[in-house]
Amino acid sequence: MKSLRIRSRGINFIACPTCSRQEFDVIGTVNALEQRLEDIITPMDVSIIGCVVNGPGEALVSTLGVTGGNKKSGLYEDGVRKDRLDNNDMIDQLEARIRAKASQLDEARRIDVQQVEK
């Protein structure tokens, strides 16, 4: 339902099927993040792509995106490259970034009841 956009709750992870170009364990990273972030209901797309060949294209259309690189991977936010993450600590870094982005999106979508009542 999530991939068809019938239900828009939680994180929609977009991951590559992996190949010899991947610079980190894509499947392991996605599995770990899905478990750690199952409490987030904020709708967002997070792309986890293991190489710089296909990663930037996916990252352009994702809320947050990672493109695999040698020892460090590129982090994109709303299609713009923002930072590089150490591949050895990527899961912890990504979890923190995703939680921060979800909080930011929640705050932006929050309705100010006092404004509505006026």
TrEMBL record:
Keywords: 4Fe-4S, Iron, Iron-sulfur, Metal-binding
Keyword Metal-binding: yes
Molecular function GO labels: 4 iron, 4 sulfur cluster binding; 4-hydroxy-3-methylbut-2-en-1-yl diphosphate synthase activity (ferredoxin); metal ion binding
GO BP annotations listed: isopentenyl diphosphate biosynthetic process, methylerythritol 4-phosphate pathway; terpenoid biosynthetic process
Entry-linked InterPro entries: IspG_bac-typ (IPR004588), IspG_C (IPR058579), NO2/SO3_Rdtase_4Fe4S_sf (IPR045854)
The organism's place on the tree of life at top rank: Bacteria
Domain IspG C-terminal: 12-99
Xref: SUPFAM superfamilies: Nitrite and sulphite reductase 4Fe-4S domain-like
Gene3D superfamilies recorded: Sulfite Reductase Hemoprotein, domain 1 (3.30.413.10)
Protein name as it appears in the record: IspG C-terminal domain-containing protein
Organism of derivation: Escherichia coli
